[in-house]
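Objective 1b of the project was to move from sequence-level analysis to a structural picture of ligand recognition. The entry below was assembled by the postdoctoral researcher (A.K.) and checked by the PI before modelling. It contains the amino acid sequence of the target and the SMILES of the bound compound, adenosine-5'-diphosphate.
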Amino acid sequence: MKIPEIFERKTVKNINAIYDVDEYKRLVHTYIEYGEWFTVAGLRRTGKTTLVRSIVAFMGSPSIYVNLWELSPYGLSIKTLINRLIEEINHVFSGKMRSVGRRIKEISLFGFKISFSSERPSEALTKLIERIIKNKKRLIIVLDEIQELGQDLGKLIKYLGAIHDLFAPNLVVILLGSVISLKNILKKVKGAPLRGRITREIILKPFDMETAIGFLKEGFNQCGITIQENTLIRIVEFLGGFPGWLSEYGRLYIETYTKTKKKPDPLTILNTVFNDAREAIYEEIAKLVYQRKKLLNYIKILKHIAINITTPPTEIAKMLKTTRVTAYKYLKYLHQRAILETKNGKYYIIDPLIRRAMTQPDAEDKILQYLKNI
Ligand SMILES: Nc1ncnc2c1ncn2[C@@H]1O[C@H](COP(=O)(O)OP(=O)(O)O)[C@@H](O)[C@H]1O
Ligand SMILES: [Mg+2]
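Corresponding predicted holo structure:
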């Protein structure tokens, strides 16, 4: 049995293999078409990267993609990012455009002299963008997981403000982040350099129960597999409406079916998906708290909330033997980074697999293990 594309683990998909988000597909297409810069926010595994990269690929415009998650946390700075962008332009365009190839050679000769200033965008990069736009008419730059810049995020925003005025609308920059909202973060940067330059934001949410069931049915139908309605409900209750987890489930189910030549037990597959997910989740949490002061407190909070399901800040303060204000600061960070959600003054973990992972007795040890290796 062939894995249907909807269940494949990749972030550039055929438009038809992207389930449900038709309205957002149209929006992304329109923004790019009109040279409008925009942000995409939302929890991990809600399909941000897939949505944007797939539409960009579909439109066939010249583009570069950089994922900051892969660059961090090894001292990610704006300089590292600019160098990475130049590398990527080299990789994508040098073979096709001689002027870019020549320019890259110059940069690598004198590269170590390039200094960074957000007021005057480093010419190393702007000259390259200029050449590409002159030749190809346009360029799309996708920057993924930009919250990873941490301290230097403000510098990036300033830098982009300057670049915007030089090249928009021929240059389109799309910013993605696994946070509740990137727009709010941009607003807080001193002077708000992107005010009026980025006005649109797409926020992706997990699927609701009905849509999530539709997602699974769509993929399984393509292989001629039917699964009982109550089993589908059980699966979605366990995994939540995250296309990332749901597609892992679908793929593993079909792979197991093909290997064993008989219908797998749906609950066994669920457990395998969870066990595979655990490691990724612990690593993500390690990265999330890595540069925070008193990082153990964050882990304690997540464990506490995971076990109690919902928790008010006063309870967190009591558990940590600290003030309500301090407890609130921790919670605010975890909320902004889209791990926690809040309702009626209480906090809870949105993703059921993260919640489950944090209830495991070895959760803390595993996270600390990752922190040691960073
Ligand atoms: N709407 C969708 N339809 C089909 N597959 C999807 C959809 N959204 C996400 N996926 C799949 O889920 C996984 C995670 O998606 P991704 O785009 O990486 O999420 P994010 O960038 O928000 O973390 C990918 O393997 C992707 O192929
Ligand atoms: Mg992503």
